[in-house]
Every structure is written in structure tokens, then in C-alpha cells.
Fold this sequence. Notes:
Blueprint: H1 22-35, H2 43-50, H3 54-66, E1 70-72, E2 79-81, H4 84-88, H5 98-113, E3 116-123, E4 126-133, E5 148-150, H6 155-162, H7 166-175, H8 189-202, E6 205-208, E7 215-223, E8 229-238, H9 244-266
Helix pairs in contact: 2-3, 5-9, 6-8
Amino acid sequence: xxxxxxxxxxxxxxxxxxxxxxxxxxxxxxxxxxxxxxxxxxxxxxxxxxxxxxxxxxxxxxxxxxxxxxxxxxxxxxxxxxxxxxxxxxxxxxxxxxxxxxxxxxxxxxxxxxxxxxxxxxxxxxxxxxxxxxxxxxxxxxxxxxxxxxxxxxxxxxxxxxxxxxxxxxxxxxxxxxxxxxxxxxxxxxxxxxxxxxxxxxxxxxxxxxxxxxxxxxxxxxxxxxxxxxxxxxxxxxxxxxxxxxxxxxxxxxxxxxxxxxxxxxx
Length: 267
């Protein structure tokens, strides 16, 4: 059963030369609403949720769709957010974006390990999936692009967290809610701090069923010229294909490919 949509009142200010821009406010409100509804909303549902007139909702969705921020499914007629905002938020160098810079290294990781390979970056206090190459195995772990994951119990999240600038790391850690996802999830900030030191020492991070039971991950940070994380690259799959004896070797391999991405991105 679907949760009823809560109406959001969008303020409309008179055009009196103030800083308020009603059309912009409505567009931002629409994107914020869709960000919390990954399954998407129809035009009529958006109209009701935002208390807009049908004509106004139609103009806004049309503008956002033409600009590449929304897409509409032709069958369900539901609007969903695209990845454009995520990509705009990425650091850029010499007009290259992180997804393009990571492409060759991600293919190399997939061919060598056979496991699902993902590119991630920080989105507020979570890890977001920017790109993904599916495992070569019939049984594979995959997620939707744009999916968010916690920082404290995922390999890419921990890899990014460990290599943030000190002040930013402290701020993020102070806000983190260390929710328990499996019996192996760390829920103590002392344990997280110890894990961060270990990751900084070896250059890669592990997730041995901390986020999902039976799913293991190995990740390494993608660093900028100051040695700070701008993202992470990771592999993920069932624990049966991640034997303990292979974890260190895989970690070093992922770390090498992460350095390759860094060089390409910064060149």
C-alpha cells in the first residue's frame, strides 16, 4: 500500500524586487520531492504533493526534463530524477568528469576480478553510486545508480571517510548515526576511528558483511592532489567469492587502479 503524499506548500512571493524567485522555488521543491520518491511520481501526483496548478506543474516538469534533470517513463508516465545533479556535484579537472576518468580502470577491475565494480562519491553524509559495471558471474550483486549507502559499514564509504580532510572527517563523524545493519556492523565511534586508522595505513577498505549479510566488498579511495578523497572504487559480491587469503591482494590491486583513476582525473 502506497504512503499518501503529503502536500508541500510552495510559497509564492509577489514580484517586488525581493530575492525570492517563485519559479525556482517550485522547481527545487519538485526535485526535493522526487529525491524522496525513487519510484517516481506522475504529473497529477506532483501537482497534489506540491499544491500546484496543473499548468504550473506541466511547465516546471517540461523545463526540468528539457534541461536533463528529470526523465519521464513513457509507460508509467512517472517522473524521476536523472543523475545530472550528482554529476554536476563532482569535482572536475580539465573538463573531465570522474565517471569518464574512471572508465578504463573500472573495466580493468571487472576483467581481473569478475566482480561488480562501482564508482562512488560522498553525498552529504552518505556514499552514492555514480557508475557500475555488473559482475561477469551469473549470480551478482548490483544496485541502482544513484543509490545511497551508509559510510560506516560499506567499503567505499569507509575508504572515502578515512581520507577526508581532518576537519571535514571530524564533522562527518560527529553527525553519523551508526545504525546496525548486520551483526558485523560497527556501532561504536571508537571502533570506527580504529578502522579509519587501519584503512589509512593499508590504503584500502573492506566490508565483510557489515552492510548486507553475505556480501563482501573491497574499496580504495580516489585521491586529489592533496591526498584527500574525491571518491572511491569498489568491488562487491557474495562472500563465497571473497576468500580471506585473497583480500589483501585484491585490496592492493583496487588501490593501484584507484591511483590510476586519480592520475587520469587530475591530468
